[in-house]
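Minutes, structural biology subgroup

Action item carried over from last meeting: produce the structure token record for Serine-pyruvate aminotransferase/archaeal aspartate aminotransferase (Natronococcus occultus SP4). EB confirmed the sequence was re-checked against the source entry. Recorded below for completeness.
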Amino acid sequence: MSESDNSIDVTEIGELTPPDRTLMGPGPSDVHSRVLRAMSTPLVGHLDPSFVEIMNEVQELLRYTFRTDNQWTLPVSGTGSAAMEAAIGNVVEPGDTMLVPTNGYFGGRMASMARRAGGEVAEVSAPWGEPLDPNDVADALAEHDPDVFGFVHAETSTGVLQPDVPELTAAAHDHDALVIADTVTSLGGVELRVDEWGIDVAYSGPQKCLSCPPGASPLTLSDTAMEKVLGREDEPRSWYLDLSLLEGYWGDERAYHHTAPVTNVYALREALRLVAEEGIEQRWERHERLAGALKAGVEGMGLEMNAPEEYWLPSLNAVRVPEDVDDGAVCAELLERYDLEVASGLGDLDGEIFRIGCMGYSARPQNVIYTVTALGDVLESMGADVDPGAGVTAARNTLE
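Output recorded by EB:
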């Protein structure tokens, strides 16, 4: 940029040419061409009658995917963290107590958001890599008598799927606590039944098992949860994420609140159409089958999963890093050599696991074989004690 005229030589920047990666990390996942095409369709106003109809369709598709009849089901304008903050920041009032888990990175984020909302935080403990024990939850509920109980259904940082969800929600309701579920890495990928399981509030992200670019994030609230939101004495600390105001836009009135990310809503609508076309239960089965082949492949080459079989999370496979191997160097080499994205660990598991997603459109046979092949090759080249050929054979056998 010239100091004299503040001009810029656009030829130095050039056209946008991001690399063509295979996305097998913890998100985002690969996006179907239909979703990308939806984003390139003509822009309309966020109060245009045609967009209002699209809003209705997105809400109905979200209810199908969440397995809920909740009226208050909508995409929050923002990433999954925006939906998370909308859930916690509206339901948790100043002086409320929220019981949160300690068994992963995103339980810690729940605690942080609850404190920022003015709540008191109590914890129910479990080691990283293990789910919450229903008995421990029951004890913590009895000890702290919280107003809100939060849990992570699919913990992205550990590869653990929380079982016994109806047991947890029933215990919370016995103490008149509302239940908030983090379903960021489970919605559209593993079994989730919001109404049947007694979940009051669930939030998610579009870029995981829904295979949609981030920007419009699913959220659903029961009538009981929304009654608490609408009956608050103090306004939520965020104007932008105030559900009592968003209700005017996403409810019957369709009154202006903010400019919705129109193209992101287009994308979410098409991603949810793909979910409905496949069938939600068939989609759950596909994720389990394809991730099972990925799991067989990494175990076949000699690696270990972080989570035991009974807690294994198909959509996010946490794989132990072999001894004397630099996980960051492996991830970098996979990008350089194969244009393949996987991720390292977070928090307490930093440096100890690879996080390999198998989500949405990324959960395809060719991606599974490609990932097992590439990971085995890179690890072997770095001196790890692995058998790449055995891993590929195990993955193929499982697929067949």
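Discussion: The domain at 33-277 is CATH 3.40.640.10 (Aspartate Aminotransferase; domain 2).
Next step: EB to file the record with the rest of the batch.
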